[in-house]
Specification:
The protein is mostly helical. The chain contains 7 helices and no strands. Helix 3 crosses helix 4 and helix 6 packs antiparallel against helix 7.
C-alpha cells in the first residue's frame, strides 16, 4: 500500500540529500515490503523532476518556498527540499537524468536484479550529492 511507496520516496529524498546509508535503508525497507526496483527508480525520477521544475521556477525569479509549493512538496518536507534545490542546479540535474533513464531501462530489459540496479542508482545519486556539498 502506501508505506512501501513512502519508503521509496523517502529513499529518493535521502539520496538526493547525500545520505547514502538512509537511502539504502529506505529502499531496502521498501523491497522487504514488496516493492520492485523499477518503482525505486521511478521514485528517484519523480524527485529529480520536482527538483528540476522548482529549479526552473527559481531561475525565473520565483521565491524558493513558492516554487516548492508549486511542485507539490509537502510542508513537512519543505526545508529539506529547499536545501537540495539550492545545491542541485539544473546543470547538475542534467548530469543525473541519463543515469535514471538508464537504470529504468536496465530494470525493464537487462534481466539483472532490478533491486540491485535501483540501489546502485541511489548510491550514485547520494555520492554526487555529497560531492556537491550536501
Amino acid at each position: 500500500g502506501v508505506e512501501p511507496e513512502a519508503s521509496l520516496l523517502d529513499a529518493a529524498v535521502e539520496a538526493f540529500g547525500g545520505r547514502a546509508a538512509q537511502a539504502q535503508a529506505g529502499v531496502r525497507r521498501a523491497f522487504a515490503e514488496g516493492e520492485a526496483g523499477v518503482a525505486a527508480v521511478r521514485a528517484s525520477g519523480l524527485h529529480l523532476g520536482r527538483l528540476r521544475r522548482a529549479g526552473a521556477l527559481m531561475a525565473q525569479g520565483t521565491d524558493p518556498k513558492i516554487a516548492a509549493k508549486a511542485v507539490g512538496v509537502f510542508w513537512k518536507q519543505e526545508r529539506e527540499f529547499l536545501r537540495q534545490a539550492r545545491v542541485w542546479t539544473l546543470f547538475e540535474l542534467d548530469k543525473v537524468q541519463p543515469d535514471v533513464l538508464e537504470a529504468d531501462r536496465a530494470c525493464k530489459t537487462s534481466g539483472a536484479p532490478d533491486n540491485l540496479l535501483a540501489e546502485r542508482l541511489l548510491m550514485s545519486i547520494a555520492g554526487r550529492a555529497k560531492r556537491l556539498g550536501l
